[in-house]
Design a protein that fits this description.
By secondary structure, the protein is mainly beta. It is built from 1 helix and 8 strands. A hairpin with a 2-residue loop joins strand 2 and strand 3.
């Protein structure tokens, strides 16, 4: 009985550990970010929509939420930061089913990163303009 109890405790702790440290600490990127400002070719959606970036481990998600019913389109990809340049790729998608371009997110992205407000604001810049994301609590 004690063996089963110890095994259960180990499983719970391993699960909790992986939720907060999936493949190691990813720093300030971890969590959900809402698009609040855009310049240049990039746009912020109207009042009935929201654009979000989510990061955990090496996986990222871009999500556009529609209306008060919270229906959404989402795509999952891979990301990494190398010296202040955020690279985000969506290898499982094609241009035919890609609806995130108006918001500045393409199938392959390389953005300059600027942090502000104590790492609560993330500004991503490329040749098309800038996008400012605010950390969702």
């Amino acid at each position: 009985m004690r063996t089963i109890y110890h095994y259960a405790i180990i499983c719970v702790l391993a699960t909790l550990w992986s939720c907060t440290h999936n493949e190691g600490d990813i720093g300030p990127y971890f969590g959900t970010w809402a698009l609040v400002e855009a310049t240049g070719e990039h746009t912020v959606p109207g009042d009935d929509r929201g654009v979000f970036l989510q990061f955990q481990g090496g996986t990222a998600c871009v999500r556009v939420v529609f209306n008060e019913l919270h229906s959404y389109d989402a795509a999952f990809g891979n990301w990494h930061d190398s010296g202040g340049v955020l690279t985000l790729d969506f290898p499982d998608h094609t241009a035919q089913n890609w609806d995130f371009s108006p918001y500045g997110v393409e199938l392959h992205n390389e953005w300059r990163v600027t942090w502000s407000d104590g790492n609560r604001r993330l500004t991503l810049g490329d040749s098309g303009g800038t996008m400012v994301f605010k950390k969702v609590p």
